[in-house]
Amino acid sequence: MKDKTNTYEIILAGSGGQGLVSSGIMLGEAAILEGKQVMQATSYGISQRGGLASAEVIISSAEILFQHVQNPNLVLALTEESLNLYLPPAQSGAAIFYDTTLIQKHEGSNLYGYPFTEMANELGHPGVANIIALGVMIGKSKMIKYASMERVLRKHFSGKVCEMNVKALHQGRSIGEGEKNK
């Protein structure tokens, strides 16, 4: 899931309104807290809510020379459209995480399907599916520390919303760390 320079090229993709752009920003902030180099970019479809939306994040211990993801090694897909768009990198070893609540089950050694939206609903808010997914991805890849991500969540949210997001992160963490990494 990473190369020899500890560089992670990450794509978070799905539908506008699923919090993927915010997730990309917060993931970058968490990496910066750890002294890492970060690049973050976003893309929206025709309409922000409901159209294709994606965030690119590069996290590296070395200087980032090219400002766009070229060879993603981590992909999060929260819609069928985004999974189909980013499935080819799995052929070259990229880990693809996807939401089995919304996407048909796929088989492959680099495919990790979890019911992120269903788990978020069980926590009381479907809007934290993206944070559960980040928790799983962090657990499997070790791209950043959980403490850094939790610190960023506490900066961006307050009260019950903050606690819901922190709980979602920890639920994802238990899944990501609880399973043997492939």
Description:
The protein is an alpha/beta fold. It has one domain: Pyruvate-ferredoxin Oxidoreductase, domain 3. The chain has helices at residues 20-33, 80-86, 88-91, 116-123, 129-141, 146-156, 159-178, and strands at residues 8-15, 37-44, 52-60, 74-77, 95-99, 111-114. Strands 2-3-1-4-5-6 form a 6-stranded mixed beta sheet, with helices on both faces. A hairpin with a 7-residue loop joins strand 2 and strand 3. It is globular. The relative contact order is 0.17. The mean pLDDT is 89.
In summary, what is this structure?
The chain has 182 residues and is α/β, with parallel strands linked by helices. It has helices spanning 20-33, 80-86, 88-91, 116-123, 129-141, 146-156, 159-178, and strands spanning 8-15, 37-44, 52-60, 74-77, 95-99, 111-114.
CATH secondary-structure class: Alpha Beta
- Please tell me the CATH architecture by its name: 3-Layer(aba) Sandwich
| Main beta-sheet strand count, sense and barrel state | 6 strands, mixed
Roughly how many Å apart are the termini? 9 Å
Spatial ordering of strands, largest sheet: 2-3-1-4-5-6
- The SSE string, one letter per element, is EHEEEHHEEHHHH
Return Rg in Å: 15 Å
What is the average of the pLDDT values?
A: 89
The number of domains: 1
Please state the structural category: alpha/beta
CATH topology call: Pyruvate-ferredoxin Oxidoreductase, domain 3
Poorly predicted spans: none
CATH H-level superfamily: Pyruvate-ferredoxin oxidoreductase, PFOR, domain III
Helix content: 40-55%
CA-based shape: globular
SS elements, strand count:
6
The number of helical segments is 7
Fraction of residues in β-strands = 15-25%
